[in-house]
Amino acid sequence: MPAPIRLRELIRTIRTARTQAEEREMIQKECAAIRSSFREEDNTYRCRNVAKLLYMHMLGYPAHFGQLECLKLIASQKFTDKRIGYLGAMLLLDERQDVHLLMTNCIKNDLNHSTQYVQGLALCTLGCMGSSEMCRDLAGEVEKLLKTSNSYLRKKAALCAVHVIRKVPELMEMFLPATKNLLNEKNHGVLHTSVVLLTEMCERSPDMLAHFRKNEKLVPQLVRILKNLIMSGYSPEHDVSGISDPFLQVRILRLLRILGRNDDDSSEAMNDILAQVATNTETSKNVGNAILYETVLTIMDIKSESGLRVLAINILGRFLLNNDKNIRYVALTSLLKTVQTDHNAVQRHRSTIVDCLKDLDVSIKRRAMELSFALVNGNNIRGMMKELLYFLDSCEPEFKADCASGIFLAAEKYAPSKRWHIDTIMRVLTTAGSYVRDDAVPNLIQLITNSVEMHAYTVQRLYKAILGDYSQQPLVQVAAWCIGEYGDLLVSGQCEEEEPIQVTEDEVLDILESVLISNMSTSVTRGYALTAIMKLSTRFTCTVNRIKKVVSIYGSSIDVELQQRAVEYNALFKKYDHMRSALLERMPVMEKVTTNGPTEIVQTNGETDPTPLETKPPPSGPQPTSQANDLLDLLGGNDITPVIPTAPTSKPASAGGELLDLLGDINLTGAPAAAPASASVPQISQPPFLLDGLSSQPLFNDIATGIPSITAYSKNGLKIEFTFERSNTNPSVTVITIQASNSTELDMTDFVFQAAVPKTFQLQLLSPSSSIVPAFNTGTITQVIKVLNPQKQQLRMRIKLTYNHKGSAMQDLAEVNNFPPQSWQ
Questions:
Q1: How far apart are CA 188 and CA 151, in angstroms?
Q2: Which positions ≥6 away from 572 have C-beta within 8 Å?
Q3: What CA–CA distance (Å, rounded) separates 4 from 746?
Q4: How far apart are CA 253 and CA 296, in angstroms?
């Protein structure tokens, strides 16, 4: 049989292939020749054939048939054969294949070989692919080599010991005696691998960490090594861009960080050396920046002095001025982590951080935006909001929603005046109204209602803001609500804060009618506009007949929600005209119960809101009935009653029948075909006409006295809490408000909460305040559940949660059985 071609010739031949098919043909031909050689037990060329096989494996072609040949090469006495054999074993074998166990004896023999290079090969292979069984069998040999005086073997044995500890943590104590003298070695390779080994042991075992802190006095040794590295002169063997062995320095800094975390004595011992590293390291090259970054992380993670922490933050501030985008991103991310503990020090770099908002890189821009919001306080709110509003004007669409939410939260917390607060939110709605969260509209309405002295100013600003532009729907909704409430102030021109404008009643109605017929108006916006027109019938005197005409026209609208509003308002004109003024009187001052998510509004005068259509805007989209059915299918059992959803805002006329089908056996005595979506009083049994059932008595207790809240769900960073209220008019009705919070670093989007209860109960689930659960617990989603429990039985509930997080869809089921007795007895 002719001698097989050499590896170099094979590589040269494969590179001449012009197509993939031609290359595949060459590989198949060579593989066939190699197989034939293996079958003939050709020892002469086995090493050459395995080497070619490894090259083909690197190209992505199958080479598993060479596994046993690698074992034969390992058993050979020739070093060249062993080298290729061990390389093949590391590439072709892993612990999932039983074949690798056949190597154990060969590796053991080679670990005791007289030649250091053979021992090195065996250590490399064991450290690369040794299984837990192999590690247990060979740990003794590794520990012996760790104590040898040969630095070449010690560094390889240290890395092999790291692999053994990862596979079999209980063998850690075996290597403890050998670690005592490792840091006294002058060879940098041994020092580097020793620090890696010590780091692994400290991270995996709290007992080892305490041992190295107290008994071994590891921190002073590391400080000494690091000081020698900094103060030593030029060493060509270890120099990288003018810095002595930066890789060893970084490893030592990481180990110091572990040793100093939550330990005062260790932190005190390393403060001086950290200050020296921070001040003496050259920053003109990326190598120096890497060491400085690791130093900053160590300073921030240990119990360091305040001056040292300020020095670390100043280093990050210098990073922000670097031309390298990666360094700027790292600096912003690190500052974001430290801003809560060292707020004043980070504030000094506020102007540099704000400048990063203008960066072209979207990752830097997002980090700068998050850090800017973290820096906002009562002293800089005006300047920071000016910069963030400018950023909101020019940023990409994917930033607008988060930026708008951040501005809302900051303005609510630090607003210097109500006028400034209103102007800021109106500016956001004008700029990015289509991107704001669902709770923005009711939040602004509540703010305007409570700012009694600003009513005339606000309605005038909103009127001018929507003249001829209905593209920003949330802005139009707030404007329609304010015009309906304070239209008389607009017409009278009583604004003192700015020059009043002259507006007639007909011009105001023209605007609202334009909103009704605009193609850009959603069903929710049209509902606001129609209700505003109806309210103006008690504010205006000359245009009542026109208002009646508009209302009667929409009594035959194809939009079920709009049609129902118009029919009820028309009946109010004809049948209940004596009650119209009282029902449509101005909204009283409202107090928001929850700071995040305006789902519950309590009247301070103890009266029910006479116009519930604006207190809680209709949901922007229907909740699919199939979701409730899917939940019932998942929960199983026949004792579960379905969820009663709020009626959709834009549903075909047949929606009433479908809704009754979904409700099943729930008794809806005298209820209309489709309950109004905007009614804020979702009683189980309703009077024949919505307005007939109005009562001056509050339906629910203002404060849930004596009923403790519970945590219904807490998993993967998502936390669901239940708070409770009891109905005054019907003690069998319990109102549960859920609050969903997110402690992870990324938002949870498309969040949907569903619930089901046994058939002895009846349940209604209202629309949530949002579909996004903000990260870092910066906000919550709130949603209201109403449960009818006529038999006063113990409450049980099954919940289903679906959301998207970190690019993947998440879904989970849970059962809640720990309801407090006060909520159902």
A1: 9
A2: 534, 579, 580, 583, 691
A3: 58
A4: 10
- AA letter at 73: L
pLDDT in tens, 362-387: 999 999 999 999 999 989 999 999 99
Q: What is the pLDDT of residues 688-745, one digit of tens each?
A: 433 344 333 444 444 445 788 999 999 989 999 999 988 777 888 899 999 999 999 8
Contact indicator for 609, 680 with CB cutoff of 8 Å: yes
Residue 60 φ/ψ region, left for φ over 0, alpha for ψ in the -120 to 50 degree band, beta for the rest: left
**Per-residue tokens: 476:** 């139009």
- Transcribe 640-660 into DSSP letters: EEPEEEPPPSS--TTHHHHHH
Name the pLDDT band for 124 (thresholds 50, 70, 90).
Answer: very high
**Lookup: tokens for 647:** 């009626």
The overall pTM is greater than 0.85 = no
Which of 425, 511, 507 shows the shortest CA–CA distance to 470?
Answer: 511
Comparing C-alpha atoms, which of 661, 658, 657, 662 is closest to residue 642?
662
93-113 core/surface letters (b: 16 or more CB in 10 A; e: else): beeeeeebeebbebbbebbee
What is the distance between the alpha carbons of residues 578 and 688, in angstroms, rounded to a whole number?
A: 20
CA distance 76 to 88: 14
Nearest residue to 681 via CA among 611, 737, 588? 611
The tens digit of pLDDT for each residue in 793-822 reads 888 899 999 999 988 889 999 999 888 988
Q: What are phi and psi of 463, to 5 degrees?
A: -60, -45
Q: How many residues does the chain have?
A: 825
Q: Which two tokens stand for residue 599?
A: 């789902």
Q: Look at the block and give the residue holding tokens 């075996």.
A: 174
Rounded to 5 degrees, φ, ψ at 419 are -65, -45
The DSSP-derived string for 253-285 is HHHHHHHHTT-HHHHHHHHHHHHHHHHHS--SS
